[in-house]
């Protein structure tokens, strides 16, 4: 039975550090790994970064801090592709027999600054354009993209990252379980309340509000994407999905060099009353295929090596 390191993370942008930690410790290659992304969301978002990803080099403490300061829970994969850690991305986002066509894609950095990226399908003359002096996008990487379902076929000849989000098995896209508020000054409260053109009011989505509680002032952030519980399912359905997923791994002889499991409980994408059940059931299923040592992200704080736990599920 394959022995594989298994990392538990709370939110998905923490996978950025885990993957870098993986190649530092010989579980992966520094370049050219396959990512099997098991999630309700593609997580290929692109955001404008304040600090260049190119300045990190191979400094684990910097990489650790960078993930929390610069990356969001849907924008952590593209920088990893840009750095070359991943060059083969497969999205297991469906439960059917779908097997999409593999695409050749690129990710490029504006003026090679490593702060803002463009990504798209590789088309005729693109390679020539990317290498031309007129190209403002500068430094670039190529990668493959494919979406498949649980009854699809998966194979890779590269070291593999098995990246699992618990919200794949039951999801709350409304984010209704999350309450975000930050205490602010009275002056900041009045500025927002009295200014109809406050910068936070005229963003694309009206997600901000202010309020007063017990003589304290707060800024609230409320993001709703769907109706509550639209994609939340019963424990019976969760069990079936996990069983089918374990069968998918078995039938495709999936041999990961590293497994990470994202709970997504603080963001609210995995329902608060289900995440622990899903995690335990998933670990039970994975234990039928792999021997693994479980490490929580908190054990690797500040990029310092921590020994893997002796306990195996």
Report on this model:
This protein has seven helices and twelve strands. It is α/β, with parallel strands linked by helices and 313 residues long. The chain has two domains: 2-173 and 228-303, Arginase, Chain A, CATH 3.40.800; 180-221, no CATH class. A nine-stranded mixed β-sheet has the order 5-4-6-3-2-7-11-1-12. It is globular and about 60 Å long. Residues 302-313 have low confidence and may be disordered.
Keywords:
9-stranded mixed sheet, 3-stranded antiparallel sheet, 7 helices, alpha/beta, 313 residues
Summarize the structure.
The protein has 7 helices and 12 strands. The chain is α/β, with parallel strands linked by helices and 313 residues long.
How are the SSEs placed, and which strands pair?
Elements: E1 2-9, H1 15-24, E2 33-38, H2 60-70, H3 77-82, E3 86-94, E4 103-109, E5 117-121, H4 126-130, E6 140-149, E7 160-165, E8 180-184, H5 186-194, E9 208-213, E10 216-221, H6 235-251, E11 258-262, H7 275-286, E12 290-296
Parallel strand pairs: 1-11, 1-12, 2-3, 2-7, 3-6, 7-11
Antiparallel strand pairs: 4-5, 4-6, 8-10, 9-10
């Amino acid at each position: 039975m394959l022995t594989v390191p298994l990392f538990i993370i709370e939110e998905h942008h923490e996978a950025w550090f885990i993957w870098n930690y993986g190649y530092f410790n010989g579980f992966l290659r520094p370049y050219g790994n396959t990512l099997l992304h098991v999630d309700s969301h593609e997580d290929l978002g692109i955001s404008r970064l304040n600090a260049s990803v190119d300045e990190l080099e191979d400094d684990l403490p910097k990489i650790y801090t960078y993930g929390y300061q610069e990356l969001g829970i849907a924008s952590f994969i593209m920088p990893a592709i840009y750095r070359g850690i991943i060059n083969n991305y497969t999205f297991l986002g469906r439960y059917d027999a779908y097997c999409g066509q593999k695409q050749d894609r690129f990710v490029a950095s504006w003026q090679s600054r490593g702060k803002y990226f463009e990504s798209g399908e590789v088309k005729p003359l693109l390679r020539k354009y990317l290498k031309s002096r007129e190209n403002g996008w500068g430094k670039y990487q190529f990668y493959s993209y494919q979406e498949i379902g649980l009854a699809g076929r998966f194979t890779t000849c590269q070291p593999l990252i098995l990246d699992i989000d618990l919200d794949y098995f039951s999801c709350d896209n409304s984010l209704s379980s999350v309450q975000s508020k930050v205490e602010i000054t009275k002056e900041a409260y009045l500025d927002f309340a009295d200014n109809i053109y406050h910068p936070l009011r005229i963003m694309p989505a009206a997600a901000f509000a202010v309020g007063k509680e017990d003589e304290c002032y707060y800024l609230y952030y409320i993001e709703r994407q769907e109706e509550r519980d639209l994609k939340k399912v019963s424990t019976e359905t969760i069990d079936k999905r996990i069983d089918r997923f374990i069968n998918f791994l078995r039938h495709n002889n999936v041999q990961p060099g590293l497994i990470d499991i994202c709970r997504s409980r603080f963001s609210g994408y995995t329902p608060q009353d289900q995440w622990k059940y899903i995690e335990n059931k998933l670990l039970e299923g994975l234990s039928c295929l792999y021997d693994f040592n479980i490490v929580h992200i908190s054990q690797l704080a500040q990029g310092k090596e921590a020994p893997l736990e002796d306990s195996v599920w």
